[in-house]
Amino acid sequence: xxxxxxxxxxxxxxxxxxxxxxxxxxxxxxxxxxxxxxxxxxxxxxxxxxxxxxxxxxxxxxxxxxxxxxxxxxxxxxxxxxxxxxxxxxxxxxxxxxxxxxxxxxxxxxxxxxxxxxxxxxxxxxxxxxxxxxxxxxxxxxxxxxxxxxxxxxxxxxxxxxxxx
Length: 165
What we know:
Number of helices: 6
Strand order of the largest sheet: 1-2-3-4
Number of strands: 10
Shape: globular
Strand content: 15-25%
Distance between the termini: 42 Å
Structural class: alpha+beta
Helix content: 25-40%
C-alpha cells in the first residue's frame, strides 16, 4: 500500500483505497479505470460489470471485465454461494439467486462443483474450457490481481473461442 501524494492510498494491485480513523483500509476503486483494447478503444469496465451483475439478477457476486490490449473483451463471473455465518467463508452450496439462474437454463446443479461439470450452464455463459470451481473471497476483489490470475483463461478465450466467430 502506498500513498498517492493526494491524501489517498493505492495498492500494488492497481486498486485504490482509503484508511479510516481506526486504521482499517477499504478498497474504493481502481487506479486504472479503463481497459484499452488491441484496436485502441477505451472501455470503462465498471458500467459493463454492473450491467452483467444486474442482468444476472442476484446470481453472481462478482463480474470482472477482461481484455486490456486484447482483440475481444470477456467477463469473469463468480456465481453466489452460501456463506458460513461464523467464518464468512463461501460454502459449496449455491445461493438462492444462483440456484434461480441455473434452474432457468435447465440445470439441476445445486453446488459449485455441480456447476463446474454442467454443460447447460457452460452453454449459457459461453465458456472457454472447463468451468472452474474457485472460491473467491467475500471481500471486494482486487480487480488487477484477478485479471492477472486468470490471464491463461483470457488467452484461451482470445485465441480459441473468439477467433472462431
